[in-house]
Amino acid sequence: MGNFSQLVYLVPLFPLVGFLINGLLWNKMPKSLAGIIGSAAILASFCVSLGIFFEVKSASFHEPVIVTLFDFIQSGKLHIPLAFQVDQLSSLFLLIITGVGFLIHVYSASYMSHDEGMVKYFAYLNLFVFSMLLLILGANYLVMFIGWEGVGLCSYLLIGFWFKKREYTNAAKKAFVMNRIGDLGFLVGMLLVLYNFGTLSYKEFFATLGTSGATMPPATITAITICFFIGATGKSAQIPLYTWLPDAMAGPTPVSALIHAATMVTAGIYMIARSHVLYSLAPFTLNIIAIVGLATALLAATIAIFQYDIKKVLAYSTVSQLGFMFLAIGSGAYTIAVFHVMTHAFFKALMFLGSGSVIHAMGGEQDIRKMGGLGKKMKITSVTFLIGCLAISGFPLLSGFFSKDAILTAAYAHNPILYALGVLAAMMTAFYMFRLYVLTFRGTFRGTHEQEHHLHESPAAMTIPLIVLAILSVIGGYVGIPEVFTHKELAFNEYLGPVVKNFGIHEIPENTEIMLMTVSTLASLAMMYFAMMKFRKPAFPESTGIAKVLENKWYVDELYDAIIVRPIEAMSGVLDRFVEKMGIDGIVNGVGKTVKWGGDRLRMLQTGQVGFYIFIMVIGMVALFTLSFFWIR
Amino acid sequence: MDIYSILFWFLSAMAVGSALGVILSRNPVNSVMFLILTFFAISGHYIIMNAQFLAVVNIIVYAGAIMVLFLFVIMLMNLNADVEPQKGMMIQLAGVISGGTLFLVILMGLTTAKSELIDTKSSDIGLISNLGKVLFTKFALPFEISSVLFLSAMIGAVVIGKKEHIPASEKAEIV
Amino acid sequence: MPVSSTHYLFLSLLLFSIGIMGTLMRRNAIIIFMCIELMLNAVNLLLVAFSKMYADADAQIFVFFIMVVAAAEVAVGLAVIVMMYRKVHSVDINILNRLKH
């Protein structure tokens, strides 16, 4: 193979150039050209990524390649270069990001073609891809952090893309603030690493951990892992910082697909998978991660069942799936989590783009109560969306089936209770997905007559990415066919093996494994059937009791408002009234008043009489001479 | 008590007395006259210290040129004792006390200063030939620069002293 | 009592102090100006005495330069006073209190 890994800097360079072109010429650029430039930049990155991937996959690739561009920070013993690391993990993420990213760019070129801010949109999107690639490729935590902040910024910009609506900008701010809480955790973790190990480079850090990790005080390791995990909960929307992700659906739908489903939200998974050496030393943190992940999966799934906004359902589904990934990580199965990241990127991007196609056809309507029967008018969207639903629900032999079962099996190996609850969450997933599908594409149309007349299939630029993603959703799982079928090690594990080592996975008997698989699959299939039946004749009564609580998302936003926002506001009010107004303002104004008063008095000395000035001068001279003759000596 | 000592005490008394006359006389013209007398006394000191060149220059430049200029200006303004502004007694007293304090302070500070006999015998350092050599070798550059200073002072004096054409309204405002 | 450098030191100090007293006591700008000349001459006298004491001609050159500067100063200073007299018809420095405003 060629020497692609040395060219790795090209991968983030192309989107950066695309961003600069579109960003600097935003008022000169024709819309169609902006879409072409934006997509071409990502396509170029994708080509390089493909080359890198095959090079990494080839047998001759052993050690991770580190490409150092320049010294970023050089201060005393601290030496942080801007370096990229090419290995199995990063090359895989490269493919996901540039591949899915390219499809979504193509889709966006059509979806956003009527929007006046299209050039700006593509600039942001390219900047996002650039930041995400920086996050993935960084050879140390600092470069990852730069990318981490960059994607947060782009997420903010793109959620608030239609900034004329106040609620959208509020959603953007919410996402930014929530992310910031997590980022603080990441930053503190990074500083802890720096303080305890003196390096941020993965290679040195993990080498140190490998040799002396066991002798480190467990409290330090746990503290670092918890801090990193807090960072991950912010970026990857886990309890307690998940509430921003559903609100983030305010952004354009392709953005939801790219940032809030396929790539950015998986940054937390990537970070933990990257730091797996560290996490394997902290079983306590892993338990917390498993519990948080599972709780998030269940909570989000329950909320998703009662949502009526097509994108909100998908958003909660994303939160729930991210919970699954964290469950996998908590069970020590890092590769499985990455596997699910990949398959999830395919089918969730597919479904978001499908929903975008639906919204496009419905003229901006997002309420599934007003849809129905769209399948007749939008064949391609309908079929591809169904494939996505089947994949996420774990229909046998589709991609989601393999990754989800791998997670559940790993959870069982860790603790059977986790497995049971995981199956429950998976059943809910199947239920709400088919509720969504049936309400949207089956039955009869429930919207206005005008909307029905307007219904149409989306143009090819939008359907082709759907088809490609649908194909990937079907075949994407075959890199991870379970061992029970092949009697070989997981192909996916084999690929990631050199960089990511799973931790504490017990072998479970084959019979048990097959049984588990059957149970979860049958349960999911049953829920699919149940949902199909239940929503064939849809009715939307006013929800009561627990359903009302779920429709209002467990009142979590209100809860946060009551226990965090209000007290802070009250405290700020007190601080404003007493500390700010009386204390600080008092000091500042007091200084001003004192100076003014003193100046008024001192001003008396300035009589303007030259004679008086000379007099003062002579007295000063006398004083100075007295000092110098009789005191200093 | 040799002749030099007698001359020294005489010239000193004359210098101090006429200096007091400068500050005490009510009429500015008298002040100028006393000042000229002071300069003559100081020139006498220069001569007994064998600095003939400076003695002559002092008389020509100070007594001859500068003081005449003062006299011109005073007469131009027609100043005399009647229009002479006077400060209050207290302020005059304060002036005397602070000046005296300065004198005493420096005096006390300098009591321990090195004291050497002033050689009154003939030595030629103050002679014009010797000073001329030093002036045009070691101090040639400052000498040239001082000529530029003179020129600029002259131009400055002309520019400042020139009559301005001020409109009547503005003139009233300034006064 | 033979004449020593200390005598000249105290003499010039006395003349200098008289100059300062005059500056403080009088209100006439021309008299103040003259007192300044007196102080300059006191310093000149001391410089000559030291020149004699150390048998060095440099101090006398300094006196020469001081005279040059004094002459220039008087030229400009008197021009200023004449100007002032022309404007306010007085040489009383107490009238010049515009610095206050």
From TrEMBL, chain A:
UniProt main location, coarse: membrane
Transmembrane segment boundaries: 6-26, 33-54, 89-109, 121-139, 145-163, 184-202, 214-234, 255-273, 285-306, 313-339, 345-362, 383-402, 417-439, 460-481, 514-532, 610-632
Key words, A-Z: Membrane, Transmembrane, Transmembrane helix
Protein name: NADH-quinone oxidoreductase subunit L
One of the record's GO molecular function terms: NADH dehydrogenase (ubiquinone) activity
Origin superkingdom: Bacteria
Species of provenance: Flavipsychrobacter stenotrophus
Domain NADH-Ubiquinone oxidoreductase (complex I) chain 5 N-terminal: 72-122
InterPro entries per UniProt: NADHpl_OxRdtase_5_subgr, ND/Mrp_TM, NU5C-like, Proton_antipo_N
Bilayer topology annotation: Multi-pass membrane protein
Subcellular location: Endomembrane system; Membrane
GO cellular component term of the entry, any: membrane
Biological process according to GO: ATP synthesis coupled electron transport; electron transport coupled proton transport
UniProt-listed Pfam families: Proton_antipo_M, Proton_antipo_N
NADH:quinone oxidoreductase/Mrp antiporter transmembrane domain: residues covered: 140-429
Automatic annotation (TrEMBL), chain B:
Domain of life of the source: Bacteria
Membrane topology: Multi-pass membrane protein
EC code(s) of this entry: 7.1.1.-
Membrane-spanning intervals of the chain: 6-25, 32-49, 55-77, 89-110, 139-161
GO cellular component: plasma membrane
Compartments where found: Cell membrane
Family in the record: Belongs to the complex I subunit 6 family.
The protein's role, per its UniProt record: NDH-1 shuttles electrons from NADH, via FMN and iron-sulfur (Fe-S) centers, to quinones in the respiratory chain. Couples the redox reaction to proton translocation (for every two electrons transferred, four hydrogen ions are translocated across the cytoplasmic membrane), and thus conserves the redox energy in a proton gradient.
UniProt name for this protein: NADH-quinone oxidoreductase subunit J
Origin species: Flavipsychrobacter stenotrophus
From TrEMBL, chain C:
Example of a GO cellular component annotation carried by this entry: plasma membrane
UniProt cross-references to InterPro entries, sorted A to Z: NADH_UbQ_OxRdtase_chain4L/K, NUOK/Mnh_C1-like
Keywords, in A-Z order: Cell membrane, Membrane, NAD, Quinone, Translocase, Transmembrane, Transmembrane helix, Transport
Keyword presence, Repeat: no
MF-aspect GO terms: NADH dehydrogenase (quinone) (non-electrogenic) activity; quinone binding
GO biological process, one term: ATP synthesis coupled electron transport
Segments traversing the membrane: 6-24, 31-55, 61-85
Enzyme Commission code(s) on record: 7.1.1.-
Subcellular location: Cell membrane; Membrane
Catalytic activity: a quinone + NADH + 5 H(+)(in) = a quinol + NAD(+) + 4 H(+)(out)
Topology relative to the membrane: Multi-pass membrane protein
Cross-referenced Pfam families: Oxidored_q2
Protein family (similarity comment): Belongs to the complex I subunit 4L family.
Quaternary structure, from the entry: NDH-1 is composed of 14 different subunits. Subunits NuoA, H, J, K, L, M, N constitute the membrane sector of the complex.
Annotated function: NDH-1 shuttles electrons from NADH, via FMN and iron-sulfur (Fe-S) centers, to quinones in the respiratory chain. The immediate electron acceptor for the enzyme in this species is believed to be a menaquinone. Couples the redox reaction to proton translocation (for every two electrons transferred, four hydrogen ions are translocated across the cytoplasmic membrane), and thus conserves the redox energy in a proton gradient. NDH-1 shuttles electrons from NADH, via FMN and iron-sulfur (Fe-S) centers, to quinones in the respiratory chain. The immediate electron acceptor for the enzyme in this species is believed to be ubiquinone. Couples the redox reaction to proton translocation (for every two electrons transferred, four hydrogen ions are translocated across the cytoplasmic membrane), and thus conserves the redox energy in a proton gradient.
Name of this protein: NADH-quinone oxidoreductase subunit K
